[in-house]
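Quick question, first post here. What does this chain look like in 3D?
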Amino acid sequence: MPAAPNAQSATYGLEEDDYDADEKTPLTEDIYGGSRRSIVPETKRWDVFRVLPPENDSGSEANQRCLEITVKIIKVIVIIITFGVVLTCGVIAKGTTLFMTSQLKTDKSVEYCNRNIGLDKTWRVQLPDLEKVAWVWCIFFCFMVPEAGTLFRSTRMCFFKSVRRPGFRDFLVVVMFETLHIIGLALLVFFVLPDLDAVKGVMLTNCVCIVPGIFGMLSRTNKESKRFLKTVCDIAAILGQATGFIVWPIIEYQRGNVNACWSIPLAVVLTSFGWWENYVDKKSRVKAIQYLGTIKERMKTTRYFTYLFVSLWKIMVFFACMVLFMYFRLENVGDLFSRFTDSFDQHKLFVNETAGVPIGAVTDTADFARFQDTKTILSDGNAPVYVALIQILCAYLAYIFGKFACKICIQGFSFAFPVNLTIPVTLSLLLMSCGLRAGDSCFMRDTIPSYLFFECPSGDYIKDFIAGEHVWIWVLWLFSQTWITLHIWTPHCERLAATETLFVTPMYNSLLIDQSLSMNRRQDDEPERLDSDTRVIDPDDPDSTQHYETISIHTDSSQTGGVKPSDHITRILACATMWHETRDEMMEMLKSVLRLDEDQSAMKVAQEYLKVRDKDYYEFETHIFFDDAFEMSDEDEDEQVANRFVKLLVECIDEAASHVHQIPIRLRPPVKTPTPYGGRLTWTLPGKTKMIAHLKNKMLIRHRKRWSQVMYMYYLLGYRLMELDISVERKEIMADNTYLLTLDGDIDFQPNAVKLLVDLMKKNRNLGAACGRIHPVGSGPMVWYQLFEYAIGHWLQKATEHMIGCVLCSPGCFSLFRAKGLMDDNVMKRYTLTSHQARHYVQYDQGEDRWLCTLLLQRGYRVEYSAASDAYTHCPEGFNEFYNQRRRWVPSTIANIMDLLMDYKNTIKINDNISLPYIGYQTFLMAGTILGPGTIFLMLVGAFVAAFRIDNWTSFQYNVYPIIGFMFVCFTLKSNIQLLVAQILSAGYALIMMAVIVGQTLQLYEDGPGSPTFIFLMATILFMVIAAILHPQEFKCIIPGFIYLLSIPSMYLLLILYSLINLNNVTWGTREVLAKKTKKELEEERKAAEQAKKRPDGILGYLYNTQPEDLDGSIEFSFANLFRIMCCTYPKQVNEREQLKRIADSLDALNRRMDQVEGGHHHHGRRRSFSRSSAHGGINTVKEDDSAVSESDESSSETSGEPKEKRDQLKNPLWIEDKALRKGKVEFLSPNEVQFWHDLLAKYLFPIDEDKAEKARIANDLAELRNQSVFIFFMCNALYCLIVFLLQLNKDNLHVNWPLGVKYNITLIEETGQVLINKEYLQMEPIGLVFVFFFALILVIQFFAMLFHRFGTLSHIMSSCELNTCCHNEKTDSPEEMLRKNAVEIVKNMQRLRDDRGDAESVEGENRLARRRTIQNLVNQQQRRQPIGTLDVAFRKRFQQLSNQTSEATPILGNIRRASLRADALKALEQRKNSVMQEKQKKKMETLGVGNKYNNQPKRHRISNVSGVESLQGAFAPPSTRPNGSVNDGYENSSGDEAPTRSGGATGVTWHDPEMGGRR
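> Answer (accepted):
Ran it through. Tokens below.
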């Protein structure tokens, strides 16, 4: 039933109440009448033959399947490699640190290898202070490197980003804690560890968590679950850490190390202050902890400014402590400075023979009294350097790979596990090494100098380690550290989280790498986005109007204050622009939208029924904006109907749904809505999301893509967001989490591609737009060329822009824009500017996507590129279409980049991501673009010389004549002639390029491999091949590189000239079709054609009389009807009889119209017509037709006897009666929305009247702009070519000798016997050499930027891939945990529309066609019930019928392999179902009055309702087994139990406030 005209439909997505009963019935039925029940027509036996929906074979789907398998394999490898790198590097970094501290022991002596100096003797070497100086400085450099990294990062952030300054108190607190930490660390490595053996030292590093443990215990709040048990564990861990202050100081004191009594406790306590920030919380009950927690929160914005000074302070404090503590270990502390260089050179060491000294015994100075012989050796001065470099490198790799593991969500296995294993593995290796060294003093002599080794324990240390008291104490320390750092096992961060989100401080502590990684890893890494209520809503409860995680626009004044949790929900508004797409192109876009609909439905159903919230959850709605969607009606020229492209869209949607869901589907007819701009068609997709097609009438609203973008931005963001009656804070949050997914009408993509773009948006809140990798689709040589061109453009150009600055263009065919960025100042408003200058037509209308990104960049937003987000779009397949497309792109690209470069100072000031070097890079590229044709011309000249053995001037002439001729053609002839000439020249140049390749090959052979041309060419090929290898999925794109090479003159010379010379042509050029013409226009064309047929050809045709017949002349001359000359012409007099006849006809027409008025037919005597108004741009309501009514119309009206219906654009336009649009409901806009559209049309989108004078002025301005641009462009290239060419001619006088590839000419003079050797250098003209280096530099920058971008892309892909079997152990997962991990996949299997009972097609082996059961499949299809057409209904049906017996018939647990685990998961799923049903039944009973003391009536059993059935088995048992009668087993259940829930409806992007009901 049509909605009332004043019904509210301006909500942000339709609410559940907007659904009628039809939307709870199967969508596979052909329903037009809107009835609750419908009869499915029986299929006749003779008509059972089928056409099956095709398998999913589009580009995105085929590649997606291959990519999923490849990514899973790669991720397994990455997990193993990351685990190995983190563990190995952590162990090496820890071991090298202990190795360096071992060399600082006082009177250090080591048993020396006796192989070279006496096998029968025992030798020991004592390290002098000079050797220790080198190791002290190595420790200092190892500490300083990460601090220098912090300083560099902080400096870059402070200079190129916006940072805040901290308060003075906050700064002092941070400095105090960092100072204590540095003092403790210096005391530990310079004083404590040198006096301990390496085994005790590595165990002691597990005891530096005392302060974090105390702060963590004091930060716990009452809201935490199991708080008492956690507090007990905290106390146990703190006590375990505290034992380190007692046990070893006592042991060391007994051994004579008095300093250990105070140094060990002080060192470990002070060192543990370094990680205070990660363990304080402002919600703590302790005031001091609360204060530190507030400082922690403020440090998120002031950290980099703080550490700009703190990093320097830490280096100075560590240096001071180093000097202080070395004062007690060196005889002369001044040796640290005076003998710095000597310590890293070779110096003498004395090796002494010992007697009676047991192996492994402790030695001191007294032992050397027993030395009998002494030998001198030289030290290895590079050994300390190598050890320090290994320590620095391994610590950095452990940090980088650990951060990488956290970013791609493999933290548990590849970060937490190896970090906790570092000390046990290091300890095991140290024990093994010390044991082997004790037995063989030459152990590792080929790796480590024999005079260097760890300080090993004395005596039988293996026995002491196992049975001694301290080993058990170490185990206590290990477990206490594990408890204190337990948070690293349960990360909450988003994929690709920023470093600031993952770690507290910017860098790491290399000397304690494992403790630094674990305690610096944030505990509060959960994203700043709140979860919503997950309660299940009763579909039959009339009061349950709250839609899960939606926001209503209807609020009262008391509810407009705080931000709601649901405001943080991601909302994706897909906005596709269409014009004249083909059927195949529409199919790809519709299938992509339907896949998103299916994906969103699965996540929605999973959280509503399985209580599982997917981290990628989003709300989704599709809007299609159809340009020029109407054409003139065949019945009435004054009325408009939908054109054939709109009808094609209506036809395609059912076929697209059938392709996606692999079953024949017929969606419900679209709801038709008349609008001020034309009309609207609204479909409800199987996943219950909305797809709205906005049909634009170019007589009512401006057409073209930019104005469609203005239309949807103002409608979706201006009207549906800013008009919400909620607080500004809530609008701010919603705008930040709302994204516009801009699409073209031929785009093909997968849901995962959109999720990857959303990940980038979530990662960086300053990101205004993100684009994916666009793959061209089509066939033919032009498509092959574009395959390589798109690949190189994305691999190198976009990747470089992403890494060193910002992407300059996010293409509108597949990009994600943040609503908040579009709504900012100088973006959306400025985007509505009408072009009044010639430059505006080029910059604004020809390259609207690039201009929109330029506006975002100039407001400070960042634009990024995700190579993992793949999309496929149809590209031009013909030469003419390709040239016309690039005719728009080339000038608009140059105009927008020049606009950005001219305003670079303000852009750099506003945008933190754009720096002066990046502006310089873009300037170089712009210079290369402008001088590109000249460079190609010079290349052709030189290639002609090499290939055809002609002189330079002749080659110059051969190349310049075609260019000048082509420019003349472009200036004088029509576009089709220009394209024909360009095509001919392109073919000729392709043939010439073959000769050029041969000539260049010969020239390269002559010049040798050292020539700059050879080096540049080989480097280019190598970079391209490496880039293709790094993009294995796109490796085939490099194959058409040969076509790209042959097309270089055409694309970089002819195309540039064609684009610039046609700069004044601002037509679209592609997808243009002829508009439907009126009868009057057709009649005029017919008369013109007849007149043309009568005209003779040739000269006679030129002389043929074309004078109008209504003119006469006083003097006439004619000759044989060949020509006729009239002088003194005047209008021919009309016959008086003819004048009287015309007057009589007019009177008759007037009498008939008067009769109609008097007879009560006055409302048919006026006809509505459309007119464009520059003032209002809307519709001039009822307007009398000034033209006389034609006799044919009047006669038809009189003969039919039925007056014409009066039409109103907003009530009963003719297009809603079009049968091709199907018989859907008709709804009407609310008055508020109608007024919005009228205002929007009047202010921004009114059709622009064609003012001939204004049009002529713009044409002249465009021609003038074209002439100026071509002149500047021509002069730049002409001067460049002339200079380089003249330098080439005079290369003997003015040149630069190339140092590589020198040729030697050896001449022997026989008379004198002299040998003359002459060097022959390659001579390069200076400017040519400069440009070779220029292009080489650009290529090197792009190559290395591509390498870094590929690493980021790999991280992005890995983070999006779920590997439960690798990252988690199924044996230890509970059924509930397995259900949570696989919830979305389970729902996707349970909601599919295709029946579980498939055809018997899976016949393998020989004669499989002969064994195919064709007849049986046809009979089964005839008997099969109609499938459910909405995804949530299909899920609920399977969900309600779920039992242990259905596990085999329903493959819903495909990710769980083991049968026992599948049974447990299925049991958990059934338990979840029972809880949902019990909650529903409870709410129903509450609605019926259960528990109400005034309602004591006896209960009535309802046989047909689930609430009256004793058990679930009875509710869903077959009819023959039900106890109380039977219920129709068909789809339409009168109880409504088969209908979707209210929360399942309208999952379009819906803004609904759970706490505010009602409509406005």
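The mean pLDDT is 78.
The first helix runs from residue 59 to 102.
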